[in-house]
């Protein structure tokens, strides 16, 4: 059983932010309309959603305003520099979580569960950033940005929050995965994503 502390979760969040930042930086000029593992959303919409979610985590803690657009209804049109807007969101998220004590048990989050311990709250923000980094990377023909160690920790977080969120459409139904599957494959399957996804899947 993977054990995560508040400090571990902040490290995980920083890694997830880096993965998302890198995935976005590698989007080719003709890649913004490509399909993604998020059914019905293209690359632009996934980025809008991921950006909005990080803004929401920051706002819940008290840093910055709430998203101006519903992250679950992304328009597919970004007004401004997408990478710059993402950077603002990631900075706000990191700044917000840096204000929270490592042993905090009641951290506000933009989730129906209400306040959560820091390791779950920061882990949830990390899970969101990391999985959407994966969505964008594979949609644009890049390798998975998820490491085995990070995937194991993200799965521990996912097991704490995902089931109630499936009812809201935030995550697809769990897919089967072999008992000996790699950590990344297991995580993606739990989140309803086939690790071998391609635009033709």
From TrEMBL:
Domain Mycothiol-dependent maleylpyruvate isomerase metal-binding: 14-137
Matching InterPro entries: CHP03086, DinB/YfiT-like, Maleyloyr_isom, MDMPI_metal-binding
GO molecular function: metal ion binding
Taxonomy, superkingdom: Bacteria
Family annotation (SUPFAM superfamilies): DinB/YfiT-like putative metalloenzymes
NCBIfam families per UniProt: maleylpyruvate isomerase family mycothiol-dependent enzyme, TIGR03086 family metal-binding protein
The protein's name: Mycothiol-dependent maleylpyruvate isomerase metal-binding domain-containing protein
Source organism of this protein record: Catellatospora methionotrophica
């Amino acid at each position: 059983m993977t054990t995560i502390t508040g400090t571990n979760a902040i490290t995980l969040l920083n890694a997830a932010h880096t993965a998302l930042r890198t995935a976005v930086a590698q989007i080719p000029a003709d890649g913004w309309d490509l399909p993604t593992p998020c059914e019905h959303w293209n690359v632009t919409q996934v980025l809008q959603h991921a950006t909005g979610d990080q803004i929401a985590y920051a706002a819940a803690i008290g840093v910055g305003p709430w998203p101006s657009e519903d992250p679950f209804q992304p328009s597919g049109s970004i007004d401004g520099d997408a990478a710059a807007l993402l950077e603002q969101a990631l900075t706000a998220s990191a700044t917000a979580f840096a204000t929270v004590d490592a042993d905090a048990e009641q951290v506000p989050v933009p989730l129906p569960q209400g306040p959560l311990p820091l390791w779950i709250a920061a882990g949830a923000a990390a899970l969101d950033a990391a999985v959407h980094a994966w969505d964008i990377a594979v949609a644009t023909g890049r390798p998975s940005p998820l490491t085995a160690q990070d995937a194991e920790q993200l799965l521990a977080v996912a097991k704490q929050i995902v089931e109630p969120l499936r009812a809201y459409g935030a995550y697809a139904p769990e897919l089967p995965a072999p008992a000996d599957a790699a950590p990344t494959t297991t995580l993606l399957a739990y989140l309803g994503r086939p690790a071998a996804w391609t635009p033709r899947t």
